[in-house]
Amino acid sequence: MRLPRLKLERVLVLTGRDAVKISAASIIVAFVIFSIFLLLEGADAIEAYRNIFSFAFNPRLGLVTTIHRSMFLLLVTLAFILPLKTGFWNVGVQGQFYLGTVGAFAVAYALGNLPAGVLIPLMMVAASLFGAGYGAIAGFLKEKWGVNEVVLTIMLNNIAFWLIYCLVIGGPWMGISESESRSLPASAMAPTIGKIPFTVPLAIALSVIFYFLLTKSSIGYQIRCYGSNPSAAKYAGMNPLKLLIFVTAIGGAIAGLSAYHMWAGDPSFGRIPRPEGYMGIGDFTFWGIIVGLVCLLNPIAAIPASIFIGSLREGGAILVRRLGLTFGLDNVFVGILFLTFVAFQFFHRYKIIRVKKRR
Amino acid sequence: MSGLLEGVRRGETVLEARGITKRFPGGVIANDHIDFEVKAGEVHAVLGENGAGKTTLMNILFGILQPDEGEIYIRGRRVEFKSPLDAIKLGIGMVHQHRKLIPAHTVLENIILGHPRTEKIPNMKRAEGEVKELCRKYGFEIDLNARVWQLSAGEQQLVEILKALYRGAKLLIFDEPTSVLTPLETEEFLKSLRTMATSELAIIPFITHKLPEVLRVSDRITILRRGKVVKRLKREEATMEALAEYMVGREVLFRVKKPEVKMGEEVLRVENLSALSDRGILALKGVSFSIREGEIFGIAGVSGNGQHELAEVLAGLRKAEGGRIVFQGRDITRASVLERLKMGIGYIPPERVEASIGGFSLVENIAMNLWYEEEFSKRGLLNYRKIREYAEKVISEFDVVAPSVEAKAAHLSGGNLQKLILARIIPRTMRLLIANLPTHGLDVSATEFVRNELMACKKEGMGILLISEDLDEVLQMSDRIAPIYEGRFVSIVPAEKARKESIGAMMAGAPSEEP
Amino acid sequence: MWPFIARCLETMTIFLFAALGELWNQRSGVLNVGIEGVMLLGAASGFVTAIHSGSLALGFIAGIIVGGILGLLHGLLSITLKVDQVISGMGIWIFAMGFATWWADKYSGPLPASLSSPKIGGMLSPLFFLALTLVFIVWFILYRTSLGLKIRSVGEDPSVAEATGINVTRIRYLSVIVGGLLGGLSGAFLILSYLRVWSHIPTSGMGWIALALVFFSMWKPFILLGGALLFGTIWQFGVSPEVIFPGGLGIPLGVYRMLPFIATIIVLMIILSPKFRRKWGLAKPAALGLPYVKE
Prior knowledge:
By secondary structure, chain A is mainly α. Chain A has a domain of 227 residues. Helix content of chain A is 69%, strand content 4%. Chain A has 15 helices and 4 strands. Chain A has a two-stranded antiparallel ribbon with strand order 1-4. In chain A, strands 2-3 form a two-stranded antiparallel sheet. In chain A, a hairpin with a 2-residue loop joins strand 2 and strand 3. Chain B folds into 3 domains: 236 residues, P-loop containing nucleotide triphosphate hydrolases (Rossmann fold), CATH 3.40.50.300; 167 residues, Rossmann fold (3-Layer(aba) Sandwich); 77 residues, no CATH class. Chain B is built from 17 helices and 23 strands. In chain B, strands 13, 16, 19, 20, 21, 22 and 23 form a 7-stranded mixed sheet that branches. In chain B, helix 13 crosses helix 14 and helix 14 runs parallel beside helix 15. Chain B is globular. Chain C has a single domain, classed as ABC transporter involved in vitamin B12 uptake, BtuC (Orthogonal Bundle). Chain C is built from 12 helices and 2 strands; from the N terminus they run H-H-H-H-E-H-H-H-H-E-H-H-H-H. Chain C has a two-stranded antiparallel ribbon with strand order 1-2. Helix content of chain C is 72%, strand content 1%. At the A-B interface, helix 8 and helix 9 of A face helix 10 and strand 18 of B.
């Protein structure tokens, strides 16, 4: 049997359906590679996955945390998606999250006496404003002066990390344990329904709002125009600076909001943990990048994707405990997924077709 | 087999192509059994419209494409080119229409780049000597240490010629050699063509227009139409009309019907307008003019003389460094693009791909000029139903051919894409239309459509600023013509008084003839 | 004071290795934003190898090789698969973060004293001089050899280069692998000579600063040398300010650690300010970041 002759052909415009197929394929391949990994670690892949998901979704064990972390992931994904629609790589979600932390905690410490009904909205507003400001700086500098946003925002991330460090370690927010902050006042913690904090439905609502914003609103149209073809957008009278600041500010605001959700939405936190701890959550924000990309920047698709990836993280912890595997495997999975997704980007531009026999 | 062309003598047949045939998917026969040959010491021009098969033949002769049928012989020996490098090795060189040079490198670096004889650590002094020798032989003058981005179009073309000659080319193929040259540079070029031809070089210019100039220096002419050779002529036998007729196959309408229109109020007045180029140098140096309702004001000039910057300043895309723009009595010098759009000023950009969004549907492209209008956007939300209705109307008015209005713009042909852009802009334009290279790269029927549209706008009382690189187009369509050179209007000439030769001269820097 | 200066020079060496490699591949038109990841995995593999093999030299070799592999991977993704170079670089970075953490964090702690690294005067690693030599070598190759002319041409306009017979793909692969090798060397040096202790993500953002340094240097090796010296000093000052300011002047440690990042932003803004922007734009390899598609 002769192998069919294949050749490459350029893809003019990618259909939505094909894009979804490509994303799905990359996830599957990532799982395959990860399974090989698990095998090398001496674990049974099926056993491992069973453990992950049964733990993550068990109401008595990991479900609450899974939902909490997934919604955090959803928020940081949204924070990444919106700016990327204009071509802006918001790798600064981490820094905006840190600034949101600063904003929320500053308000909580200063105005801790206020009743929850006033304090919590104020915290959320402060968190959003701090995050928005941090994001807008990058958006402004990119549009006005063409500063490379990846390098700029990574610098801002690092600065923000050390800012929290100053405030907590040996600083004004230091708690009883010298490496952590003081606890938040009880009134600052997010009210829950069952064990689910109100920020969970809020995150989902935001996701839906984003979707309608992008597809139905005038500014959404402008964002998509500019993201597809900046020159055309200028000819159409759109203002790139306004758009960039809008998306980076909103993105930053969501990232800032995610800080409230993370620290005040999980009773096991309620404070800023030691540097390794808050840096761990800070690194978690990078997962938003891969979720956003795999979902093809679709805010609605980000919801199930976040839950799925979030469950991997929660469930991944069980692999360490029960199966004695090395800590950090969930990070490895995300890394593999990123690489396979990147590799599959190839199919966004080319398709492999069979060469028809010539008469 | 390299060095096949060494020691060739004048009059020898250098290259012969027999039965060249090339088919493309979709049933297009780009070259249909073409026979062609050129001798050393001869200039043999190949003429043809866009789509006649010129480019395909040229690419086959240079090894960029391989023919489906037919053979190529060099000095009687059968050869096959798998890539341009094979052609280069055999002594064929190509001088491209759009320079294939590296702007950041020096002239010398560009010339020696990739030359097989260059050592690991190149001996620049030796190379310089060799290139200088070439310059002396053909009478070329150029600064070898200048950076290419600093050079003019004519000088850059010279670098390409030197590059080919340095690689040992004995046969030079030229792709539209005079299309980006000023009339003065064209004269220089033609002189050097004749000098090169008096030696043993063989020269093949492939051209579409600017017939008169190149034909003056060609010994023989071959005309292509629809993939076939339709005529072969010697220089003595060629006249302009006959050539054009063979090229397009019918009596060519050199004249565009210009409607009689009574001109109205002044729509636009520009006073001493200046602007910088992208590189930060002053490109527009204080132009002043005005346009009335129903008038077409044409700007004639080789690209790069400030007309592009002028168009962008008028559209609001570029800052004015000095001067004023007055539209219907209002000073709009500082107005944003959006404000100008709302005032009804339309701008047709020169690059279709930049002016439209390939990944968007036709409807969403039309919306580019609707999103800011209250009629289509209320309280921040777009009314897609209304937008679609409107889009369907203008798309059919402007004869845009596509499977549906939801089809993606990327699938449109060049002509249809331009019609889409016109459909988007013209109905929203009230009194002033700025058309920047509106027929660039379009085939004959699309070009006709665009010109008719512009005339219709003129009839409706719009003031039109027409920027075109096609001197004939400017001369025939405009009511007044301003040749632009190095950022200034040399003169402003009414159409009745305009003579092509004097406009052409002014475009190249000759001073105005008026006292 | 001398120990402080030695440390500044060692930090400069870390930046220099990574940035020289990146300068090389950027000159050929390939942008690798994942240098931080390459350094990280170079450090991880160097550390783990050194501990297991008991040989510092093997650790260095492992780091270099791993760096080269990552460079090759980046090449595969961005040159052959024509994936967006920024995405590919970020993918490598994020993958490296996860992988290095999983692989090496369990070895957190210092290198055993038996694995000593030779230092001149007990303070300065001899690899510093290797870095200086590399600056000269890179400059010579890029500006005085025909290979360098080819590399620079590929970075300016690959289609023109290809038309003159240069194999663009080969040149880019070569460059991206060289970039990876040097990035891996930087990481190995960081962990085996400079830090000698493994902790979570020991690169702490140095790779990103190295990337910025390449932009600052306007792709010229000697300017890069100056930039690496400046930022090496700023970084080291940020780590141990008490050498210059006794008691740190009461300013919290975190503020000092922020300095290199703030400095980077300031320089980024300076080179893109209207005054410098034109010069910078002209120096930039015109095809940087764009995939090359053979027609």
